[in-house]
Amino acid sequence: MRDRNFILSLERGIRILEIFGESSRWLTLTEVAKLINLTKTTTQRFLHTLHSIGYLNMDENKRYSLSIKILSLGFSFLNSSNLTKLAKPYIDELSSELNKTVNLVVLDNLEIIYLYRKEVRRFLNYDLLAGSRLPAHCTAAGKILLAGLTDEELTKRINKAELNRLTPRTIISKKLLREEIIKARKRGYSISDRELSMDLYSLAVPLLIEQGKMVASINVTMDAKDTDSQIKKESIFKLIEKGEQISRLLGYQGPYPQFPS
Question: What are the structural domains of the chain?
Answer without folding.
Answer: 8-67 (1.10.10.10), 74-249 (3.30.450.40)
